[in-house]
Design the sequence.
């Protein structure tokens, strides 16, 4: 939890974070733009609901027709 809190604070500044092990870079964290973040969240929710992207698109089309 300590890492998450610190990383969240650093990412709020729109800066990338390089994680090192013994001075050697092993990973990079970077902030996502809002749209990309929403798309990732949508995919995670589809996985939880056990539906495919195609099924989600059909659901959205049905909802659009109803509006």
Sequence:
């Amino acid at each position: 939890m300590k890492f998450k809190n610190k990383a969240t604070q650093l990412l709020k500044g729109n800066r990338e974070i390089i994680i090192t092990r013994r001075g050697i870079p092993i990973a990079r964290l970077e902030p996502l733009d809002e749209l990309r973040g929403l798309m990732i969240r949508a995919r995670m929710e589809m996985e939880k609901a056990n539906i495919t992207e195609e099924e989600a698109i059909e659901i959205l089309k049905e909802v659009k027709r109803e509006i």
